[in-house]
């Protein structure tokens, strides 16, 4: 059995593939890793590149071809196929330092009470660039990890935690990773991998890694509603956010209520309601631009904010 399963999804990724494979196959201890590639509608050229590296590393690469699907669904396919103790997700346009994965394995091996690790990274404008914005991630605290994306683009954990916190929610096209991080933080402990940056995260306007789209903001609002991060909600995204099934997580053909995946969920959400809901109301009410964007469907919400959320909680 391999030590680590590396899950990567691709779609129209031809220009990144050669560099991706060269980078991953040069990782320290790569012989003990497996790459699980989920190929969304691969082109002929992509298939040629995949097959070339598959022949070179027959025991290290698994390839699954699918039609076009969202990233959460593809990631979950990888989770199901993973046979290693440790799992990580790596974007096809990002690059890892050659010792980064073995450092993260060392972090979890040296701290058996921790099940999830992450570390510093650098945001770069394109693949192959190594200078950019250095992101120093914080040391783990559960309070912060259930309110903001402390992990960034660096998810590395013991596969067994999927039995506790579930897989990525396949409703999400953009926010699946953050939602998963929050559920994980409510179930297990994290430990930051020490040292310098672990990876170079490609982000530019229009890239698949960009985090500024309206969809990303809508899905972040869904997550804020789901976990009681009421003080951070931007109410102009509420109408679209409420189209999601906020209190159920969908994966692998199943639908699970959030309370099945988070210990004492109802007590947890009631505490967050008491602590943050009024702060969120005040933040949004002082912004007239946001108020102008409310639609008729939200009038009930503003007239009865407490009843509104209590009704949602009772529905579940």
In words, what does this structure look like?
- It is a single chain.
- This protein has 316 residues and is α/β, with parallel strands linked by helices.
- The protein folds into two domains: 4-202, Spore Coat Polysaccharide Biosynthesis Protein SpsA, Chain A (Alpha-Beta Complex); 214-315, no CATH class.
- It is built from 13 helices and 13 strands.
- The strands form three sheets. The chain has a seven-stranded mixed beta sheet, sandwiched between helices.
- Helix 1 (14-25) runs parallel beside helix 2.
- It is globular.
- The mean pLDDT is 89.
Q: Under CATH, the topology of the largest domain is which?
A: Spore Coat Polysaccharide Biosynthesis Protein SpsA, Chain A
Estimate what percentage of residues fall within beta strands.
15-25%
DSSP, total strands: 13
Looking at CATH, the homologous superfamily of the largest domain is Spore Coat Polysaccharide Biosynthesis Protein SpsA, Chain A
Query: Helix fraction?
Result: 25-40%
Order of strands, main sheet, comes to 3-2-1-4-9-6-10
Span between termini = 41 Å
What's the overall geometry? globular
């Amino acid at each position: 059995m391999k030590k680590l399963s590396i899950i990567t999804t691709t779609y129209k990724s031809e220009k990144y593939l050669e560099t991706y494979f060269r980078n991953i196959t040069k990782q320290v201890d790569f012989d003990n890793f497996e790459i699980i590639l989920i190929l969304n509608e691969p082109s002929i050229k992509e298939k040629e590149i995949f097959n070339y590296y598959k022949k070179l590393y027959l025991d290290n690469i698994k390839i699954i071809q699918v039609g076009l699907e969202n990233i959460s669904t593809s990631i979950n396919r990888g989770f199901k196929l993973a046979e290693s103790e440790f799992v990580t997700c790596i974007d096809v346009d990002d690059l890892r330092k050659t010792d980064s994965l073995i450092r993260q394995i060392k972090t979890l091996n040296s701290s058996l009470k921790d099940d999830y690790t992450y570390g510093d990274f650098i945001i770069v404008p394109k693949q192959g660039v190594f200078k950019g914005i250095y992101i120093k991630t914080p040391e783990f605290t559960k309070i912060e990890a259930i309110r903001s994306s402390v992990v960034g683009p660096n998810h590395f954990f013991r596969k067994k935690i999927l039995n506790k916190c579930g897989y990525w929610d396949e409703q999400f096209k953009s926010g699946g990773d953050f939602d998963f991080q929050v559920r994980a933080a409510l179930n297990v402990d994290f430990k930051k991998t020490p040292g310098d940056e672990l990876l170079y995260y490609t982000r530019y306007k229009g890239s698949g890694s960009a985090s500024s789209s309206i969809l990303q903001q809508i899905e972040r609002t869904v997550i804020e509603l789901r976990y009681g991060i009421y003080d951070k909600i931007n109410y102009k995204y509420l109408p679209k956010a409420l189209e999601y099934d906020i209190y159920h997580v969908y994966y692998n053909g199943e639908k699970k209520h959030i309370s099945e995946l988070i210990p004492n969920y109802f007590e947890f959400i009631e505490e967050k309601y008491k602590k943050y809901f009024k702060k969120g109301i005040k933040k949004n009410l002082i912004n007239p631009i946001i108020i102008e964007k409310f639609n008729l469907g939200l009038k009930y919400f503003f007239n009865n904010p407490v009843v509104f959320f209590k009704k949602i909680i009772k529905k579940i």
